[in-house]
Hints:
Elements: E1 4-12, E2 17-20, E3 31-35, E4 40-46, E5 56-64, E6 70-72, E7 74-78, E8 80-81, E9 87-88, H1 91-104, E10 107-111, E11 116-117, E12 122-129, E13 134-141, E14 145-148, H2 153-156, H3 159-169, E15 175-177, H4 184-192, H5 195-198, E16 204-206, H6 210-219, E17 222-227, E18 237-242, E19 247-253, E20 259-264, H7 267-277, E21 283-287, E22 293-294, E23 297-307, E24 313-322, E25 338-340, H8 342-349, H9 355-377, E26 382-389, E27 395-401, H10 410-429
Parallel strand pairs: 2-4, 7-10, 7-14, 14-15
Antiparallel strand pairs: 1-2, 1-5, 3-4, 5-6, 8-9, 11-12, 12-13, 16-21, 17-18, 17-21, 18-19, 19-20, 22-23, 23-24, 23-26, 24-25, 26-27
Amino acid sequence: MPVLIPLALLYEHGRSTWHIDPKEQPVTKNLKLYWGVPLKPVTMSIQKKILTPTEALPMKALVALGKQPTLGPLIGILSAENQDGSLKGNLNNYKAIMDAGQKIGGIVFAFTQSSVDWKKKIIRGKIFNKNTNQWMTCIFPFPNIVYNRIHNRIHENEVSSQRCIQRFLSHQGITLYNRGFFNKESVLRALSKSTKIKKYIPETNTLWSITALINMLKRHKAVYLKPTDNRLGSGIIRVRKSLSKKTFTMHYYANDKQLKKYKEVDIYRLWQKIREQMINSQYIVQQAIHLASVSRCPFDCRVLVQKNHQGNWQISGLGIRIAAHSQSITTHIPRGGRIDTPQNVLRQVFPQQKPAQIMQRVYRLCIDVAKKLEQHYHLLGEMSIDVGLDSNGYPWIFEANAKPMKFDEPEIRKKQLEQVIRYAQYLTFKM
């Protein structure tokens, strides 16, 4: 890594000019720096006039010294767009990432595929000024990092989005990571090829037909039917068999998001009900693990794994999600789940084991999972992993998700945002 010097900046949006912040950076002359891909000169002038917070937005960046002193990292958040080309997605998340860049050292803007000028190699990016509570448009060179945050599969799979992603992937000098959402079946298939990880994965098969369901129910008392392309627990169905009463019980979430129960003695009539509740997605059928529980409510772990300032996988945090009640089929907060700390829950549930030892076991497994998935999906920078613990504290990998959502735990959230900027710094200046 080259020698990096922090630089305090001001962006004067009224004149679309960049300045060195005289309050933070005592310099005596204008600086000619280089930024973007390919490197383009940008003059950072000395701002002698005192600018108000509504006139200029403070930022921080790093400068790599050399013949062409390089300013960065320049991070472009790739967003979906509305019909008028405006940003569409989790705008509060974009603002939080920009705020992290302003504190740690990274110039962050959001953009859509239609705001890219491929001939001039410039982007009309959006930056948020929290002092005026407004989005501002600024012209940037191509960024060092394209951070894909297109918020759903429909928008990501559009031809225009895929064309934009592929062009950035093939552009020399630009790093685009997290190129797309994961597919549950593809993830588990890739992980099953690792002898180290395979023993932590519940038996999982493609749900091609009723035959797959029948075969799994011969081996397991309960199974989950999961859509391969959805998040937040939508479309999940649980089927349990009762050997004594020779009945099948199905739990699912109806349109009103209430948990429903359906009983049937005939597997074929049950299948008809299942088909009615399936969403538009390919499904997998997965062995149900009897999870450890708190006050009879099952819980699982959400583990955030990210690349750090050295480009290595690191655990940013582990959150506990407890189901709403004993019959819940997910632990998701929108389905009534609640949050607790791992120290509190693990100490209650596993009094004979130290919480730190259980967490370290989960951490090691999740790092192995991240490394294996990167071999399969190529360059990644982050993921969340759902891990269940059975009554013995044995960990089970249920799924991994690209583009992790916001963690509600403040310390994990802070780390989550920080690592995005730190990893961008590493990618920008490692050469």
